Amino acid sequence: MLVRLSPKAAEAGHKDRSAAGGGRTSAWRLPGQPEPPRPRRALFATEHGARLFPADVWGLIRRLGKAAGLPANLVSHLGPHAVRHAFATLYLDAGGSLRDLQDAMGHADPRTTRRYDRARYSLDRSPGYRLSAYLAEAAPRPASCLAYRHLCG
After folding, report:
1. Which residues pair with 28 in a beta bridge?
2. Are strands 28-29 and 3-4 parallel, antiparallel or unpaired?
3. pLDDT at 59
4. So what's the pLDDT on residue 21?
5. Is 75 within 8 Å of 66 (Cβ atoms)?
6. Is residue 44 a contact partner of residue 21, using CB atoms and an 8 Å limit?
7. Cα(96)–Cα(53) distance, rounded to whole angstroms?
8. How far apart are CA 48 and CA 70, in angstroms?
9. pLDDT, one tens digit for every residue, the chain (153 residues)
10. How far is CA 137 from CA 140, 146, 151, in A?
11. CA distances in angstroms from 111 to 101, 102, 108, 116, listed in the order given
12. Does residue 137 contact residue 129 with C-beta atoms inside 8 Å?
């Protein structure tokens, strides 16, 4: 029998995540097991050593955008999700695997990950376009096309 941990322990969207050792982590524990110890130090800290809160991350990303010279209307829309989206899009643009990205992003459904693939709308990647290009290259040309190229294209 499993016992549900406190809401604080289950806060991460109620999803199981892969642990670094290859196991699974979740908000469940066996009866009789002690609750995991609370961290004494913050995992992420500010420059002064204080705990880093979500608002601090938002502020940091916006300050970096402003320092990079981005327009004010764009900086106002920057946040952690924009960074996550940029990571996913650039990873796929660089030739990364859709399956690996799905795993890194924690998506259960590959359709969720496909929305980051800008190249999927490219005509060059269309199966029909690729097939027709292959057939056009592989097809033998009639002798009349060799003599009258302007007629055969």
Report:
1. 4
2. antiparallel
3. 93
4. 44
5. yes
6. no
7. 31
8. 27
9. 444 445 554 454 445 444 444 444 555 667 777 777 776 777 888 888 888 899 999 999 999 999 999 999 999 989 999 999 989 988 988 889 999 999 999 999 988 998 888 766 666 666 676 777 777 787 676 665 655 555 565
10. 8, 15, 17
11. 12, 9, 9, 10
12. no
Helix axes 80-93, 54-67, angle to 10 degrees: 60
Q: And the tokens for 19?
A: 């642990």
Q: What is the DSSP letter of 68?
A: T
Element at 89 (helix H, strand E): helix 80-93
Query: Which pair of tokens denotes residue 79?
Result: 């946040």
Cα separation, 56 vs 48, in Å, equals 12
SS3 48: coil
